[in-house]
Amino acid sequence: MRLAVTELLRRPGRFVLAGVVLTLISLLLMLLGGLLDGLIASSTGAYRAQPGDLISYSSRSENSLVRSRITASDRSVVSQTPGVQAVGGLGSIQLGARPGDDPKSRDPFATVLFGYELAPRGLPATPPAQGSVYADDVLAGDGVAVGDTLLLGPQRSPVKVRGFVTDTRYAGQASLWGSLATWRAVTTENRPGQTPGDTVQALIVETGASPPATVAQTIDEATDGRTTTLTVTRATQELPGVAQQTATFNQIIGVTVLVALVVVALFFALITVERTAQYGLLKAIGASGFTLFGGLIAQAIAVTLVAAAIGVGAAVVFAAVLPPGAIPFQATPARLAGNVGLMLLASVFGCAFSLRRVLRIDPASAIGS
Amino acid sequence: MLALREIRRSLVRFGLLVAAIALLVFLILFQQALRDGLITSFVGGIRNQSAPVLVYNVDALNALQASSISPDLERKISQAEGVGRTARVGERTFTAMVDGGDTQDASVIGTDDRQLFHPTELSKGRRPSARAEAVGSDADFAVGDKVEIVPAEGGGSVTITVVGVAEDIQLSVTPTLFTDLETFGDAVRAANPDVTEVPPNAIAVAPENGASPESVVAAINASSPDADALTRADAAASSPGVAQVTRSFQVIFLLYGLVVPLVTGLFFLILTLQKAPSLTLLRAVGARKAVLVRSLLTQVVLIVGLGLVIGVALFFPLSQSRVGGLPLGFSSAAVISWSVLLLFLALISAVASLRRVLRIDPIQATRGGGVR
Predict the structure, then answer these.
(1) Under a CB-based contact definition with an 8 Å cutoff, are residues B202 and B58 in contact?
(2) pLDDT tens per residue, range A71-92
(3) Most distant pair of Cα atoms in chain B: their distance
(4) Which of A248, A293, B139, B173 could form a cystine bridge with B41, CB 3.0-4.6 A?
(5) Residue A31: which of B173, B251, B323 has the nearest Cβ?
(6) What is the pLDDT along chain A (369 residues), one digit of tens a residue?
(7) Where are the alpha helices (DSSP H) in B160-288?
């Protein structure tokens, strides 16, 4: 093992090219993982911030918030269902937002205005007064500040920004959070003929100590199937594109790890061939095959760790310097650590290709070399 | 031949390199197909429709469904210079059932013009000639399908008959139907009986004779600060998500494009260093430099070529399927251009090895050295 480390320290140039290839693969893994996390985060933030355990849609909406309509009477039924502790309405509308001092701007921000009753994470328990909103901090990156007025939609409905909230984007757009009254007023002004009246798009349900899955079933039975109630986690996964994006990116990440494995295998197989005589000599003076193989693994792990560290660093820097909205990218510790783990696994398994060759080396060959 | 004999005697080494290149080629082609499929499924309905110019409300940020055109804006658009025919366009996603089957999402696009904003080519069937007839995306519908819009409580019944199908006309990765504006309005009211008015989402424009789409776009945009006119190609390219998807994949392709030549270059460089004594001996017994160079380049072409063939062979069956609902496709142009590019990059990457081979001094054979 000491010999392997000494070689790494004294002849690092021998490992540079393999390190460069592994670094590129590491960058690819970090980029792919970051893109996946960024895409998912920008689509699901508004749901992940919800305080409740369940979300009820109208059953004919195919779990689409935009198409769902819950009437006041169904809301009343849900509120009285056993196991339900609290119920809050949720409404949404996607509109362009312009700065208050630039009502003719041709470049509005893409926003989703949510009306809520049960406060999502980071928002005050009582929704702000009509005409006021909290904004996702993505908008702060666009120059929006507390106290600013935003003009929403073709009718330029004014809302005042009271503060910011983090990680609440929806469908790739920045969210604005106000009361249901604000949502109703803005919708009525900007979507002629589609006044929500006393309906909401969905209900957020808190179940307290009762098991959410059981309560969900009870709610749907109580409304005679007019609602479809899902846990917040499941509703998040069912948002358009989330499952497909996750599956596709994971497949790509899997094959990229496989490429890393083959590259490590290739490189260390070549190194083993190069060192056959050297290994024969070491075996002749008493080193076991497994000791030599351990050294090989140590070198593979060291090169991989350096490559992975560069990949991690690059991902963190990339996430920090990326202009908001350019590419959906997120560098989360879990993803970065997971990718490092995958690369280390690939390097160890890649080295295993050389195991047979190392064990097969005959110490007697040292005599002839 | 020297090159082939060496490959035959070191099958594992060369096999691993072929496997690495094949996997990388497979990944590149798969991701290219995925990107193309994703973009086509996002905006095929805009890219492959007949209107040369589309006008959204600027608030919609180029999202058809989020746009709403007021009567005043519609009037300004139709009066802009160079505007010939116009059509109102409506688009929503509904819950639907095909022939009484399971519920699914369906995007319905309605227009009040028989020519504007309809699929440019049909792959089967005919164009609609009566109310509630439609052309559907051929990946999702067949001619004769009856598509029922699932009504909300109190909503009326709307059934659309598919009379024709067309390729690559999906919107937002959703099964898509092109029908008339009345049927579209009926569907909106069925899904939400409280709706009292259904404004168009966009206006499709055909320039009058002699006017170019670009000049009409400029004239419409100058007519109102709320109008966002775009040519068909721009409307497709600037749809939400398309630019982000394109940029993200470009970065990924760039990295893969670097990995392939680096892996190949690294492999042959190490191999050349390992073979240095043998190559020196060959030079000492009279082998010309050209023979060794030819041998190296033959190996690069063979190994990368084999990797390309295996990578394409792995990709082909996958390209005939759908991944996460996205139709993939086998693009010969993509395969050829990537093959040429990767082979070229691999040959470039062999330059380091070539330089080493060219620097071999035959006299070193007498001293036990080789490559310097």
Answers:
(1) no
(2) 999 999 999 999 999 999 999 9
(3) 98
(4) B173
(5) B251
(6) 677 778 777 777 778 877 888 898 898 889 889 988 888 888 899 999 999 899 999 998 888 998 899 999 999 999 999 999 999 999 999 999 999 999 988 889 999 999 999 999 999 999 999 999 999 998 998 899 999 999 999 899 999 999 999 999 998 889 999 999 999 999 999 987 778 888 999 999 999 888 999 999 999 999 999 999 999 999 999 887 787 778 778 878 888 888 888 888 877 777 777 777 788 888 888 888 888 888 888 888 999 999 999 999 999 999 888 876 667 888 999 999 999 999 999 888 888 878 777 888 777 766 654
(7) 181-191, 213-223, 232-237, 242-274, 276-284
What is residue B167's DSSP assignment?
Answer: S
Are A21 and B30 a contacting pair at CB < 8 A? no
**Chain B residue with Cα closest to A273:** B274
* Residue in B closest to A196 by C-alpha: B194
Quick count: other Cβ atoms within 10 Å of Cβ A125? 8
Q: Give yes or no for a contact between A241 and A106, defined as CB atoms under 8 angstroms apart.
A: no
- Residues of chain A in contact with residue B260, where contact means CB-CB under 8 angstroms, are none
Chain B residues with beta carbon closer than 8 angstroms to that of A154? 57, 59, 68, 70, 226
Note whether A270 contacts B267, CB cutoff 8 Å. Answer: yes
CA dist., res. B81 & res. B220, Å (int): 7
Q: What's the pLDDT score for residue A28?
A: 86
Classify A255 as helix, strand or coil: helix
Alpha-carbon distance of B330 to B315, in angstroms, equals: 8
Closest residue to B197, CB basis, from A94, A193, A248: A193
pLDDT tens across A270-308, in order? 777 777 778 888 888 888 888 888 888 888 899 999 999
Q: Mind spelling out the 3-state secondary structure of A64-115?
A: CCCCCCECHHHHHHHHCCCCCCEEEEEEEEEEEEEECCCCCCCCCEEEEEEE
Q: What is the pTM of this model?
A: 0.78
Cβ contact A172–B94 (<8 Å): no
- Identify the H or E element spanning A151: strand A149-152
Q: Do B192 and A265 touch (CB under 8 A)?
A: no
Q: Which helix (H) or strand (E) holds B35?
A: helix B11-47
Phi and psi based region of residue A232 (left: phi greater than 0; alpha: psi -120 to 50; beta: remaining): alpha
Closest CA to A225 of A54, A92, A61: A61
The answer to whether the CB atoms of A31 and B198 lie below 8 A apart is: no
- CA A43, CA B240: separation in Å to the nearest integer? 13
Residue B201 CA to residue B361 CA, distance in Å, equals: 75
Cα–Cα distance list, A184 to A142, A200, B23, B313 (Å): 26, 9, 53, 56
Q: Diameter of chain A by CA atoms?
A: 93
CB contact under 8 Å between A28 and B17, yes or no, is: no
Distance CA(B12)–CA(A360), nearest Å, equals 15
CA of B289 to nearest chain A CA: how many angstroms apart? 24
Q: Which of B120, B113, B127, B205 is nearest to B168 (CA)?
A: B120
pLDDT digits (tens, 9 = 90+) for B13-33: 788 888 888 988 998 898 889
Closest C-alpha among B258, B351, B269, B346 to residue A15: B269
